[in-house]
Amino acid sequence: MRYQITGKHIDIGDALQTHVKDELGTVLAKYSQRPTEAVVIFSKSAHEFVCESTVHLSTGLTAAAKAHATEIYAAFDACAEKMDKQLRRYKRRLKDHHKDRTEPVELMGASSYILAAGTAETEEEEPESLQPIIVAEMQTKIPSLTVGEAVMQMELAGAPVLVFRNEKKDGVNVVYRREDGNIGWIDP
């Protein structure tokens, strides 16, 4: 498994990197036999340290966790505990999907755009054109999943929405978290 441990504007020492590899490796060994990559990013927000971790599994699923603490080791430990809780919570679902899925998740490329948000004073004025202003353009990957796997992937990643290609109907679908706490599914 590959580890990518970095710090944003802070120095990450060898002792912390060893601690992260040992602790995260222990958590992943308990619940997931096939992780491929772990990305851990440390940053500082005011007086707190922030630890964000993302683990990519060989099936294409991604688990993410984020934690804050006044000490950097405590921030990582809280983040690892959240990752442990997520993987423990979804262990049965992950195992059930592994039995059905013999091949890794297929990914297809797509373009992703970030559009400029309008400000209060510019929204009152009539826009010159109806074309949105594109701030950034990047490539992203859309996984080919079942609806159940898509919901699980969205919950593991902590994302509010997930676009995926439905394996059963071979079309692009969307699952999202509704305001009432339920999951919505758009199947055009």
Offer a concise description of the structure.
By secondary structure, the protein is α+β, with helices and mostly antiparallel strands. The chain has 2 domains: 2-98, 2-Layer Sandwich (Double Stranded RNA Binding Domain), CATH 3.30.160; 105-186, 2-Layer Sandwich (SHC Adaptor Protein). The protein has helices spanning 14-31, 72-89, 91-100, 120-124, 147-157, and strands at residues 2-7, 35-45, 48-57, 62-69, 106-115, 134-145, 161-166, 172-177, 183-186.
Number of helical elements? 5
Would you state the CATH class of the largest domain?
Answer: Alpha Beta
Quickly give the structural class.
alpha+beta
Count of separate structural domains? 2
**N-end to C-end Cα span:** 38 Å
Largest sheet: 5 strands, mixed
Instruction: Name the overall outline.
Output: globular
SSE string, helices as H and strands as E: EHEEEHHEHEHEEE
Identify the CATH homologous superfamily of the largest domain.
Answer: Ribosome hibernation promotion factor-like
**CATH architecture annotation of the largest domain:** 2-Layer Sandwich
Give the strand order, joined by hyphens, for the main sheet. Answer: 5-6-7-8-9
Low-pLDDT segments, ≥5 res: none
The residue fraction in helices comes out at 25-40%
Name the average pLDDT. Answer: 80
Report the C-alpha radius of gyration, rounded.
19 Å
Q: Into which percentage range does the β-strand content fall?
A: 35-45%
Q: Could you please say which CATH topology of the largest domain applies here? A: Double Stranded RNA Binding Domain
Q: What's the number of extended β-strand segments?
A: 9
